[in-house]
Amino acid sequence: MTALALEELADLRATVAGALTAAWDTPQSAGHPDAGDARLGAAWDVAVRQGWTELGGEGALDALVAVTGELGRLACPLPLADVYVATRLLGGDLAAAVADGRIRPVVAAAEAARDGVVGFVEAAAAATHLLLVPAGDGEATLAPIAGVRPTPGTPVPAWSEVSWSADGAVTVPVTGAAAEEARAVLRLALAARAYGAAGRSAQLALEHANLRHQFGRPIGSFQAVSHRCVDGAIDVAAFTALAGEAVRLGLAGDRAWLLAAELAVAHAAATAPRVQFGAHHTLAAVGYFEEHEAPWLFRRVHADVARLRELPPAGGEPGDVLVEGGAGLPPLDLGERAEAARAEVRAFIAERVPGGPTGEDPVLLDLLAAAGYLAPGLPREYGGRGADPAEQVAIGEELTYAGLARQARVAAGMLGPSIAAHGTPEQKSRFLPLISRGRMPFYLGYSEPETGSDLAHLRTTARRDGEDWVVTGQKMWGTGAHTAEWIWLAARTDPEARAHAGITVFCFPVGLPGWSIQQHRSLGGEISCTSFFDDVRVPDSARIGEPGGGWRVLTEALAHERIHIASGTARLLRLFDDLLGVLRADPAAAGMRGSAARATLTGLAVRLQAARALVASSTRAALQAGSDPAAAAMAKIIGSELEEDLGEAVLQLLGPAAALADGPNAGAPQTFEESLRLSIMMVVSGGTNDIQRNLVARALGLPR
Question: What are the recorded GO MF terms, alphabetically (predicted)?
Answer without folding.
Answer: flavin adenine dinucleotide binding; oxidoreductase activity, acting on the CH-CH group of donors
